[in-house]
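Many introductory courses stop at the sequence. We go one step further.
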Amino acid sequence: MKLFFFTLVLLALGQKTFADAMITSIQGTVQVLHVLKDSKDNSANKVLFEGQKYLSEKAKVGAKVQAGDVVMSNSDSKAKLIFEHGDLFVVGSGSALTIPQSQGGKDKESTILYGNLRAVINKDGPLSGLKIRTPSAVAGIRGTDFFVSFNSTSSQTELKVLRGEVNVQPETKGPTPSTPIPSETPTRLAEVTVKTGEVVQIAVMAKADTPTADTHSGLTSTVKTFSVSDFNEVTSESTVHNSDSNAGLSADMLSAVKEAEHLAVLNVIQDVTRYNGAAGKKMAEANITSIEEANQFATHELAAKVGALEEPVAKKSVASSDATSWGQWFSLMAETLDTSSFASGVSSNSSITPGFAGGASYTIRLGDSWKLKSGLGLVYNSFNLQQSTATGSNTGAYSSMYAAVPLDFEFSASEKYRILLGATPMAKLFSSLNSSASGTLAAQPAFTTEPGVTFAPDIGFGFGEKHWSYYFLDQPQVILNTGANGAPATKLNIISFRAEYDY
């Protein structure tokens, strides 16, 4: 029933125009070149690109792009675009392409000038029938999940089909390659159908390899099956880690971005269901919330189907774009001081004291649900002591700084919720006890021994979204120092709130 409802929603939305798309995620720096509608416009940001005038602006999350606009990404940048009906474009690193537009009032075309594109096109939507053009090839899209790239140095177009079929043929006015194309078993190409799990490479051959003249002279194609490197490239290039801050977006714009992402997820689920009903049902029941998850799930399904990857490798390559990551962590601690082992008459005038911690974090992904989290940081503690007798009193302000190395195992109970178990070894860097006495009591409430290393057990519950994770931790019985005869003199029970950011 749920999947049926998804299908009805997508079919209804599929009647909209194909022109506009929303940028929902940006990694790095991406530019948008808007079609110049007024030739007399003298704006300072007017640029000439590929012989045409545009207005250039930096891409932002929530911004719209229209038919004929050009999206350009730097070598370390990517962008995710979602059309109003749920179709998806992921513009890969070092790429430039045009937003689909009508040609001659009939055909819909998008041109990849250089770089790569991952797209999911609904067979029943308005972009069905789209043509993807590169300088050396033209691909006809009826409804499919595909990845296409163009190498301007070799003039080679490569098309990878993850679902469905794509008809591709050479661009008869293709460019001359700047370097010769090595050809293993080149085939002069009129048109070829690329099926699920296949890769085709189309290139302009070097002059010496050019066959006798015919309609498509000088072009070759090589068809092969998906390999490990193919899957890894598709997964890496179609995963966008949003580096554009959403802080300035209005509540309505944030809602619109989330709605577009949700619609794209439904679109992927419907497309997967069309070709593999069992996989589509599994996706619909998996509570997938992001397009990255949906695309990675679909890629993994294909990997298993074509047998190009062994199961452990497939999980590693599609479950996350990186096996390890660096980040930062910060903790605000509420410390309850246990004075039960203090010397006679010694107490604290503040039962709950604050503490602070922070540093670098390092995460190793051990599988779909487990992570090993470590890092390095500093922990600061401070509290007051006092000692009173009938003949006088003594007060002391104690503070200490520790170097901490959190070492925790995280279990993802679901997509958002986590459980954390481990310990934080802490090495003392310095401590001080400044005291003042009155009356006849001269001895400060001192500690006879302060250990160089102590351990704080970590027991916590957390939740997360995108790059951020938040944990509520209980660290019971942290012994900071000892008193007479080696007995614990200062014990803390720490309740902390830890925030962690993964790059």
